[in-house]
Design a protein that fits this description.
about 210 residues, alpha/beta
Amino acid sequence: MLVSPSLLSADFGNLQADVQRMNNTEADMLHIDIMDGVFVPNISMGFPVLKAIQKHATKPLDVHLMIVEPQKYISQVRDCGAEIMNIHQEACIHLHRTVQEIKAAGMKAAVTLNPSTPVETLTDIVAELDMVLLMSVNPGFGGQKFIPNTLNKVARLRKLIKETGSTALIEIDGGVNLETGRQLADAGADILVAGSFVFNATDPAAVIKELKNL
């Protein structure tokens, strides 16, 4: 299992220290949520903060844009050091075009689905994707409770990926802990995003190691 700690749950007053702390764990990447207060009811961090994170991070940056019109910011995301640019299907009218532009910019292309969006909406694009992120909570806030129907969605997405010959990885974000992580692993998930479960732990490195061993 791959693990992507979510910096949304880090100490924003001491962000450099938390990034460096993650550098010294077995985490595979760092998940960074950029929210605009329009697509989701919250504002998190923007590109200057992302650029600052990039200066200190040794892990690949998994940048999740919870914003309207994400296609306008491809070059800025790239210039901030993102390896993966993750956009919401619900926020992107011309999804195929945007995915191609992300790839042309030299990044991996990922698409996120909200809890109420069926995985079948990706039937005609999933073969083009490097990753699909399923939100297992409603996006906008950390520390929410896991939505059980996500397990059904993971299984259906795994089936769709196989049928289309896609190589996309399945990432899950929201309410991830050892119990839900184990269920997600059994359902076919590849990457777990974990925020409060990691950063509120007494020993985040140990928690990450446990998640990786699921």
